Amino acid sequence: FGPVINVTNYPADQDGYRAWLESTGLYDSNDNLHLVWPANTYDAASGDAVGRACRVFHWAEQTGVISTVHNAEWDPTGVCGVMDVNSLNARAVSISECDGKMYTIWVSANDPAGGVDDDCSADLGAGRNGNGEIWLSVTGDLDGLAWDAARNLTNSYTPDCDTIVDGVNDCDSDNWPTMSRYGMDIAALGISPDSFPEQVYEVEPDPSFSGTNYLDVLYVNDKAPGLGTTGDETLTRNPIRWFRLPCVEPVVEANPNLSPRSVGFPTYLRHGQDSTFDAVIENSGTADLSGEIVVQEDSGPPGWLTTTPAAPFNVNLLTAPNNFDTIQVTLNTGGIVDNPGTVVNLVGKVILRADAPTVTDSISLDIDFFIADTLVGLAWDTISTGYISLTVGNNGNMGRAGNVGEGGADSGRTNMDFYTTVDECDNQPGADGSDTIPGDARVYLYDGSPVVMWIDEIDGTDTTIAANWSIFSTNLSTPEAFKPIADAAYDAPGLLADSLTNGDYDAYWSGFFVTTDSSLTFEKTSYAPRNAGDATFIIQRIACWATDGSEQTGLVVGEAWDWDIPSDTGADNSAGQIQPNGIVYQRGAEFNQDDTLECQDNDTRFGGAALIGIKDATTGGTVNTSAVPERFYTASNETFVFPAGNFVPIELWRNMVDEDGFTVDPVTEDQHMAMAAVRDYSLAANDTLEIWVVMATVQSGTETDLTTAIEDGRTWFDNNAPLAVRPLQAGCCIGTTGNVNDDAGGNVDLPDVIYLVNALFLGGPPPPCPAAANVNGDSGCNVDLPDVIYLVNALFLGGPAPAPCLPQCN
Predict the structure, then answer these.
(1) Cβ-based neighbours of 9, under 8 Å, separated by 6 or more
(2) Are 35 and 7 contacting, i.e. CB atoms less than 8 angstroms apart?
(3) 524-548 per-position pLDDT tens digit
(4) Residues 6 or more apart from 190 whose CB is under 8 A from it?
(5) What would the pLDDT profile of 141-157 be if each residue is shown by its tens digit?
(6) What's the farthest any 2 CA atoms get from each other in the chain?
(7) CA triple 413-419-420, angle to 5 deg
(8) Pseudo-torsion of CA 256, 257, 258, 261, nearest 10°?
(9) Average of pLDDT values for 92-112?
(10) β-sheet bridge partners, residue 106
């Protein structure tokens, strides 16, 4: 062996790519080595190779050039499913030589550029359930500098397939292909194509092929695509298949690429700042590329997105190796967005519009990021009554998808369960290593979060719903995910999200999080009572307001839960409602077929919730405990969650809006639960909507026990009000309220009234110390019209003096 040669030489300080787990090699007929490998994108700032987005690359000894065979840099969360663990968007590469050309094949499941994004099995398999297809790319010589666009060889489209159920809708997932290293010229061997038996299967990516050179491809037709590494895989008879591949000519077309393909969360800029980065235009195709670069600003002030050269401008790129050009892209040009204390979502595109003949007419660099004082990453904490516990996060999530990341996947134990208490009989494995019941008693509440929706657009019969939630996701990258931010008043370590624990309760304040378009700001506070004995309830407050203080209309605001109450059949639950208490619940399933294993009947286990009340400007500064949810229901996860791996906004909208009142799914299956506390709601300017909810679980009992736990929660809420809603700030309000304009002498007088009126109704600046403007002592810390009335009465009409400063507001 000779000396080691570093083929890739990836620079550590630059964004780019990193070779993944596999490569394949071939010596061509000129005795030159070729290598092909998939590589995923690399972020220099974090030092990590990121996700499944990747390219298939080729290197040849005679050129020393790394060229792109195929761009598979799509977002895997935008398709119905992906492939196995340790797989990128493209995998199982193989390279061959035939008829003076090079051929590369690989497997991809759901390649949006190839027109496939919904080819998945019905068995979600933790989201890794895409049906693979075998794809081909060809180069016209042995240098391998320019490759044509991918062609789908197997075209085995079987969406929502289920091999196990009926044997009719079988999955057709093509995987692990290998290709003969060199082609066979049947004419040189004296073989006539007509002499092949009828069983010879030929894939013709080019129907006009009239040559005599062929390659052979062997692959596995996987009938149950998925993990296959978890110990619970499904055994199926998987055919090993073969076909003849004609050595077709490459398609002569330009193939434009842009790198990076997107800029999004967690990217953000502070107000008044801009940022410039390089974007690379590449023509990886087999013909020269000409076209135009333009910019498109979908939100934000005109001029925030610019390029150098200034768009629009023409581009001309040859085929490889001289097939690259670099442009500069600037975000928030000149710091045009400069309004500290607000969160501004900037959305736009840099678009390459290509002239024919090309693989695609256009390709874009999609930009969707925030201007904010500070965006923050995910943070988690646990609150506990001393009897049950719950994982909570700064994005409003609770449960953390079965508490993934705390002691291992689906570790639970802080999910409103009883696993760690002395009363839980199912807290140890059986003598044979099995669990004492088939269900997992470590988890009651698998996941949950606030939900907000409104109609974004109506185009004919199509309605687009703007929606945000943090359920069914353990990261911040999904389109609907709330984004945690830091407010200037809380922009100190430890105050982005913080504990509010005292002797009466263990509580957690989420900090602030915003909707994707930043129009609404939320906060969530969760309370676990410590003065209520063996309490099995938890109280929570969801609050939201318009980020810019303007009126917001047509809102649906509530919460969603994914209970997985321990059951004989894993996560399958029945559901019920208890009236007039306004309770909706899920219940474990019991089939009386495992009495030798289980320690109790699982249909005695419950988890449910009820609305305590609603507070806004119309309720007089108090929580209206007579409020009833506009909609409260349970529904099948198999129908409304599993197909997309998450809620689909329009489906959730229909479930929460198109029907009224309380309904439950009578079928024992994996269900979720959702409450629309308000619908078609108008959030007044500078108002705050508060939704108070009680949740409870029962280890072993009846509907009556669940009702008692919920009502205990309501009673505890009444007895412990006002509950702190935020951690203490630096203490800008000292003694009593009323000094709204924050004058140095601390005077409370007419200028304070004028300042407050201007701030609330005339577009004036906000009070420097909001706690000092809460002159009526509102425990929710709202600053609104009642404060103006209270201050006028105090100063001029003989009313009571301004209230003392409240710790929770300061």
Answers:
(1) none
(2) yes
(3) 999 999 988 889 999 999 999 998 8
(4) none
(5) 999 999 999 999 999 99
(6) 112
(7) 85
(8) 130
(9) 95
(10) 135
